[in-house]
Amino acid sequence: MNSNSFPQSWRRGVYEAIARRRDMRSFLSHPIPAETLSRILSAGNQAGSVGFSQPWNFIVVEDEELRASVHDHVEKERARAASAFSAERQQQYLNFKLHGILEAPINLCVTCDRERFGPAIIGRNTIRDTDIYSTCAAVQNIWLAARAEGIGVGWVSILEPDELRRLLGIPPHVLPVAYLCLGYVERFPEQPMLAAAGWLPKLALDQLVFSNRWGEPPSGELTDKLRPPATAPQESERTEQHAHTEKRRGLIVIYTGQGKGKTTAALGIVFRALGRGLRVGVVQFIKGKWKTGERLFAATLPNLDFRVMGQGFTWEGDDLGAHRKAAREAWQAAKDLISSGEHDIVILDELTYCLLYDFIDIADVITALRERPVHVHVIVTGRHAPQELLALADLVTEMTAIKHPFDGGVPAQIGIDF
């Protein structure tokens, strides 16, 4: 690695965003938080542009009547476009779901101002359309940033620019380049929709790279690197575990109820995940300075970030300020672990008590879980899990107290209880 390259985990994230980007057509109704949308638009605004002309604008379209008008126009154009295909392909084309204009929480029109800083722009005097190419670079930045945020993007191209100008009040010299639908999705498919449907074949890289002149294949070592391996055409650089992530999504797991074993169950998953080479983060919201067996063992394990951040179990009395402060600091640390995507699994041990006492805002927790990177599993433990959290979860187990040695006067046992 040279001094200018990113750390390995960063590089992996860049290539993963590129490889897992999809043109999405179906969306969930969950709103996109303003701070998330702002980050995505900022990525678009950081695109390279010819002569630093920055010709783009971003029109966020949320008005339902306006979106309905765009939808009606696209449907008319879609029906008209079907006539361009052969008879056997027309019905297949019409069966495709080609947009999510009405269901996506955000529509976004990306435009190109062809007179910005003009008429003389460095680099544009010969190839006039480089301003449009620059705007496409902004669109790609938006697409990749959205994918990194777990948000799907669909590019709607079946529309007339002049009609879009009329609907959105765009000036004549400004070109609508892309009309995008943005929203959370149930899942990102392993293959692009049209590839999975067999509409067109996927072209191999070694068919697309020439050397020096058109049609001349590259020679030497590059030829071998471009050619897909016979044993694994698209997975040559992936480990078995990494390839498996293409087939899964991060789950939300909750262990709740009055019975013993909630933290123990979560720690069992920690042990299993570490054995598979996954990275795990644990934030304990209550235990404080308790020297538990898991805490002592965690200090010896690679790939495990174990943080004990609570103030203990004594929440009695009038002043809960120290507990509230500790809970909020722990939640901030947990949010950072989740959002970074560096950990495959994040355990939020006894988080529910902090929600019960209103130390942490449940809405903030729900937002963080919804916005987490798609591959991150989150496991929450503790009694009295709120209904909002239960509704969001993929798996909920309630521990039922049937018999406990404490009831017979038996104290907590080392290696069993702590």
Task: Provide an overview of this structure.
The chain is α/β, with parallel strands linked by helices. The protein has 2 domains: 8-197, NADH Oxidase (3-Layer(aba) Sandwich), CATH 3.40.109; 243-408, Rossmann fold. It contains 15 helices and 10 strands. The protein has helices at residues 8-20, 34-45, 64-81, 87-95, 130-148, 161-168, 193-196, 221-226, 240-244, 262-275, 293-298, 321-340, 351-356, 362-370, 387-392, and strands at residues 56-61, 106-113, 151-156, 174-184, 252-257, 280-284, 304-308, 345-349, 377-381, 395-399. Helix 1 (8-20) crosses helix 5 (130-148), helix 2 runs antiparallel to helix 5 (130-148) and helix 3 runs antiparallel to helix 6 (161-168). The longest helix is centred in the last third of the chain and has 20 residues, at 321-340. The radius of gyration is 26 Å and the shape is elongated. The protein starts with 7 loop residues before the first helix and ends in a 19-residue tail after the last strand. 28% of the residues are buried.
